[in-house]
Specification:
By secondary structure, this protein is an alpha+beta fold. The protein is built from four helices and five strands, in the order αββααβαββ.
Length: 200
Amino acid sequence: MTAASGPAGAGRHGLGPGITSASIPPRQRPMKRQLTSPYAHRSARCVARYLARMSLLDDVAKRDGWRCWVCDEPVDAGMSVNDPRGPSVDSRTADKKAKVAERLAHRACNTRKGAVKVVIAWPDRLHVVEPAPLIAVAERLERKGGRELVARCPGRKDAQEAADWLVDRFSRLAPGLPVTASVEPGGGQFLVALSTGRRR
């Protein structure tokens, strides 16, 4: 016996006497080693989805100036997306026809919104009576346009401060909605109204 010939009686490639790889049915032939994981394509899809989400998050955050649309507080760009104060992409409205559906929100604000109806808070410094729910106002103005009374104030100065805040807040709450605020006397107080025309 020599090293080249293998054990006595063995056929070519050591398969046995008179047996060659061509004579073995395909299903019984030794399988070639799989060089790639069967889950590799799944991993690639997961990576692609993750990169797409990160790209969307970055685009939305830049458009919204890295400010949460719910609480109107800054969002830290360096915070982990898994941190409660980290960034996340949220939807302000379920209306698929809305021009700006995706908004930037803190992770905690986004999660809390799923269980509790969101209320956009009016600042405590403003002296307003019966302030309107701003999300509902924004949705009506986006849908129908026109004019909405949103608050009453005891003095003209208070009403003007509220009007200025509303215009600034709506620039982030409903980007692209050209809102103007007006103050007018009525019933011994001053009424604050928001008006809009067509969306830009």
